[in-house]
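Protocol step 4 of 5: obtain the predicted structure for the target chain.
Materials: sequence only (see below). No template structures provided, no constraints applied. The aim of this step is simply to have a reference model before the mutagenesis design in step 5. Sequence pasted as it appears in the construct record:
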Amino acid sequence: MMNNPRYILQRLIPVHQQRMMGYEHTLKGYQQQLNDLIEDTEGELQNIQSLMLEYQQNDSAFQIASQQRVMSFHLLISKRLHLKSLAEDIALHNQSLRNINARREQVCQQITVTREQILFYNKKLEKIRQTLLLIKD
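Step 4 output (structure tokens):
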């Protein structure tokens, strides 16, 4: 009886059918898990798309702010260079003023010396005039 193919088939078919039903049940479970996973993935995809849009908006705002900072930095550098140029001009003018003051001091000293010489010669001339007046009398 055990070797009888009919008997073997009659015994195996119900076992095989039960296994097929188990596989179908397992397959339905996998299908449900797959559907749940697809729904979760679609939700995550929407979240990712929302985050990407937010990132793009933030990135645009960051780029605009960065460009404004760069422009401000360039303006600051330009102003600093202008101030440095002005400081150099002021230093040159100060040096010129020091040179002018030194020359003025020299001229004042020369005037003082000349004045003293004039006073000295005026005294001599006065003595000569006095002498001439005495001689004339």
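Step 4 remarks: DSSP finds one helix and no strands in the chain. The mean pLDDT is 88.
Proceed to step 5.
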